[in-house]
Fold this protein.
Amino acid sequence: MKSMEHPRFTISPFLVFVLILTMQFGPEYIAMSNKPIQLAGTDTWISVILCGISFHIVIWMMYRILNRNETDLIHIHQQFFGKWAGAGLNFIFIVYFLLTASYQIRLFIEIIQVWLFPDLETWPLALALLLLVYYIVAGGFRVIVGICMFSLLRNLTLITLIFTADYFHFNNLSPIMDHSLNDIIRASKEFTFPYLGVETLFFCYTFIRTPKKSQKWAHLANFVMILYCLMGIFISLLLFKSEQLSNEIWAQLTKYKFVHFPFIERFEFIGAVSQILWVIPIICFCLWASSRMFKFLFNVKQLTVLPILLILVFTAVCLIPGRSLVEAVQIMLSKIGFYIIYAYIPFLFIVDIVRVKVRRTV
Amino acid sequence: MNRLFLLLLVICFLLTGCVKQQVLDKITIPIVCAYDEAPNDQIELTIAAPKFQAGKPDSVSTILYSKVGYTSRNILQLMNMRLNRPINPGKFSVALFEKNLAAKGLADELDVTLREAQSSRTKYMAVVDGKTKEMLQANFSSNEEKGMFLFNLLDTNVRSGLVPRQNLHDFEYSFLGKGMDPFLPLLKLQKDQVVISGLALFKDDKYVRSLNEKQMRVMKLLLQNVKHGTLEAKLDNGSYIAVVNVGSKVNYRVGKDTKSPKVTIYLILNGEILESMGVHSPKQEQQRTKDRFEKDLTTTGMDLIQLFKKEGIDPLGLGDFVRSKTRNWNEEEWKKEYQTLNVRLNVKVNLLETGIRK
């Protein structure tokens, strides 16, 4: 079954690199170093690499499934599990994406509230952001990829971290392998949340012009993501003691506190606000993907269902009051994401192989 | 439809005035805050609020406000009742602590400043010998704002002087880090002038004792690679000689076997003779001068290390260093071992130049 989109809506394979990288490199990274460093200490960088390699394997599995069926996950579900079970699975993914979008918006608003404007209400900023998201998503998939491209500007804020070098303590990196393998693996489990985002491939597959050629770009994106994570972890290790990190909520934003310019005394405020570049592309993609699934589930137009989803996300965002609930949502999402990556995708992979084998014998 | 949404989006920009505004002319931005001890576990907070005069941009005076209370944020709030412009705590760059308060522990004050998003992580901290309020009342800076004066005093002395760097982040780092203890510069008021008189050493977050200026000098050499500062020594014939440090390197090594010293500190100092009073041809004297400097530095350094061991404090971070070289390092065991730790100091002085005269 061929279900590729019209070439007018497709993107070139190399843009998969930009798309996957922006989806993976979400705002979760600002808090990623706290927990794993408590577990694995000086050896946390090994966990980063281990987790990254496991994601390479997952990407490879995803491409095997997608290339064999040549369609996206929405249709694969219906082919594999029938109409009703497939619809149910699609619905789970809709909930997952909507929850991710709500979490990302709430996290960004929380950062703004804590760092800049403590008296800011949640709803006005959520409203403004969601209007922006509507405007982008209504433009279609290619516009979302364009926003992903635009968001690469964030690397400018990461470059400034070079100014923290004055405070590096290099003996925080040794001794190497001081922790048990068990600790290292538990720490790498913590890293699945920052690495999440490759599951988006399942939904944009049909929008890639020559999808089979795009696999190397997806792997490259994951590789660059490993480098970003390593950079974050190394700077955390060099700057802080693990006892300090256990007190921080957003270690990455605290790092910006060391950056001073003659024209900007406090770079951390720019660092906090620049999180919008991490957040917006992900929210856009989540809403695009979930509205697209709705389109196939209920035979409605994508643009009619989009405002309804936005209102849902808006209410969800307003219902999350503060830190404790944001954290609860985060834990829940990281659990769902963990099972999607390490349980559901391998499961699909096996089902796919079995289907092919069965068809051959018949 | 799309246009309508774009319009709505543009309208959102009109909402920008809806949060609390802070106009620079309508707030007070103090730079220095000082903590004193007060009865019943209270603290007395003193801030020096800069006062600008209209029409005279270069004349700044400071007005002191102080108040006693339990929490520093509440004190600031109460101070606002005496001010026509409310205080904004974002620019505090120097925090002064009275010696007696520091002896009780600084962990609470540390938590306040580290919790606040607005506060700087690289602000300087210092311990004051005497009441901080009295120090701020003194007229020590003629035409500069007092907070700015203190900030520049500490900043220049850390960057190109004898004071080892220890700001808020470094303090927390060595306070929370295992196998290391923090220290802070010690300020003193001498005849209406603020002087950095030495270092205040801490055990965890509690002040224990102080070092004088000579010990501080050696301490800085042992802590980091330095490229500035002078050293002075008395030669055997009674004349003095001064050497400027053009680059010193410090290296820590951990001995593997039990016979050799556990930690060896190698200090290599490249100097340039600056003053050779009474020594007419320093070139021939060089070997003796070198020996004298090496001996001086070694004795002062070893005395320092003995002192640290006696007090049970570790401002050099020897414990942290040994941790980075041994597997399964344990803080409790280290503390027992530290009392009898065998540390050797190995100093080598190279005199490279003698200025532009022979």
